[in-house]
Amino acid sequence: MQRIADALQVSPTILYQPQSAIEAAKPTGQTGDYRGQEGECAALIHAFLRIADPEERRRILALVQASAERA
To answer: Which of 3, 34, 54, 58 lies in disulfide reach of 22, CB 3.0 to 4.6 Å?
Structure first.
């Protein structure tokens, strides 16, 4: 979990508190409702954990972050 937290640049405690993680992921001033997406978040984390290559994990993280910024 520490490696995931480091990659996501968040505190590891956030990963154990889904609602806190959702709130922390919101851009400043974001008022969107993320309820109902917990399953998708869990699936994304589960898939991310299965990627053995650190470079591939960085590429995927950059892709997800870029996609989020375009949204």
So the answer is: 34
Q: Is 31 helix (H, G, I), strand (E, B) or coil?
A: coil
- The structure tokens listed for 66 are 């870029």
How far is residue 10 from each of residues 7, 18, 31, 33, measured CA to CA in Å?
8, 13, 20, 20
User: pTM above 0.85?
Assistant: no
Each residue's pLDDT tens digit, 16-63: 765 555 565 555 555 556 566 777 888 888 889 899 999 999 999 899
* Identity of the residue numbered 19: Q
Whole-number Å distance between alpha carbons of 39 and 44: 9
Place of tokens 């109902």: 36
> Cα(57)–Cα(66) distance, rounded to whole angstroms?
14
**Beta carbons of 70 and 62 less than 8 angstroms apart:** no
